[in-house]
Amino acid sequence: MTHPETIQSGDADFFPAGVGANASGLDVKNLSVSYKDKVVLRDISISSFRPGDVTILIGPNGAGKTTLLRAIAGLIPAQGSVEYGSNALSSLPVKARSDILTYLPQTPIGELEMTVLETLIDGALIRGSKSRADVEQMALVLLQKLEMLSFALTPLSRLSGGQRQMAGFAQMAMDLPPVLLLDEPVNALDLRRQEQVMGLIKDFARSGRTVVVVLHDLSLAARWADRLIALSGGEIVADGAPHVALSADLLRNLYGINADIRPDTEGILRINVTGLAS
Amino acid sequence: MAATVLKDHRTKQRRKVLLLFILAAFAVTCLFANVLAGPSSISASRLVGGLWEPGSLSAVEQVILFELRLPSACLAFLVGAALAVSGVEIQTVLDNPLASPFTLGISSAAAFGASVAIVAGLGFPFLPVQWLVPGNAFAFAMLAIVLLQVLNRLKGGGPQTLVLFGIAMVFAFSALLSLMQLFASAQAAQMIVFWTMGNVDQAEWIEVSLLAILIVLIFPWSFLSANRLTALRFGADRAMSLGVDVNRLRLLAQIRISLLTGLAVALTGTIAFVGLVGPHIARMLLGENHRLLLPASAITGAALLSSAAVVSKILIPGVSIPVGIVTAIVGVPVFVTVILTRTSK
Asked: pTM of the predicted model, to two decimals?
């Protein structure tokens, strides 16, 4: 176990690539969700979320992004199927499913009478695969990496929303299954923390994991996505690498805005919103 | 810095365990104080001596100590523990800090059941007559919780729906209770009122034993679920991602709560606030990890009800106020203080 004092930032190897070469992809087939008679997701099929990719879901409010993540995670009843390797996820018991995927909701963890460090340690011990000493060391390494040591011993009840979002993210990162479903993990974070979290998410993918992230910030999405999927009205309207999927037309249709999209000198898409589309 | 953080963290954890033992010692002190307090003027030293050597007491004193004081003190201790553990479980399961064992209507149903036995003498056949009232109270408490589960299952609802149905249950059974009182004789009506006030004075060893057996069966079951309950505090979605079957956990917790609270209420009537305040105090002192919070709640609840029982005996000399009234009166300021200290940080 790496001693916390010696960890370097950007140390991608810290997260074991245990899922590596034989990792399966995630297949979504004909997924539909309706509440009463309102259809929220309409027959969504996504062939193969690939291990190693950061897939980012974008779309306007109410497009069905969160519903899609929660349906994949098996948290809400849905028609259709989600397959991981040879397993249909819906047929697995909760424990077995949690060994395959984890879901981080967009609402930060509550204002609990529990320190950030306890949140990480207790969360990992509940999964029960590691010893307390290992879990403690790992939590400290992670908190150091995320620059959270200064409030590691502060109860969640005394932290800001952004700090609690960091705590929830760090807890999720303590014990990573092969598939990560992250719902707006940076929406309450300042710019430096956004970078840290997105960088770590990229590291998770590089270690062979399948990562699906809902983001509202298109600039972040364009920079960090290997694959971008746009949802509107419960249907997929675009799917591909950012420079393929993102276009001024798409943004006009999705959000009703006018925007300039052009790659900068490093090939990263720059999005400049110029106003409301009439 | 990481090393210092870890050291401080471990010191904090050790302090919490120590605090738990101090709390336990305090609760036992309250238990003894409760044994010593009472209307008859036997000196404390004589009673303490009598605990070790019953022969040193007169026959009357022996009856007072072993047939009145001890069973009543033990019942208060156990009921306090049962209500507070039920309280912390229901607060976690419903994700609602204002929930108490009575939120789901268990006590109202029990009170109605008791009133049916008192007014109409209706109850289970073959049950000894002194068990008619508690037997009925327990049966109606169970009936209420089953009804609640059926309703909630029909709606397919989560904890919020459950709370609303629980409130509906409270109102329904309270109305039925009022109806019973309207038709009751003056004497029966008075008995109902006395029953609903909640008291531990007329405890018998058989009642104490029943509750003790149930606690021995259910507390370890609760404590084995401690980690899963802690996970639920991170939110139901996160708990599922940590491998916890949330629906199953919620159902099993409700079964535990119903049994414990149902029996506690059947034996003592409605004792408010212990199940609400006990968990809050325990949480303030020891945090949310249920491995500490569950035992801490049990201890806090036992200490609270024991000290309330002491107050009920010494507040007005010669009069023993039902302990349920004391907990309600003392509970309100304690609860307000808890809220104030929580928000002032």
From this structure: 0.90
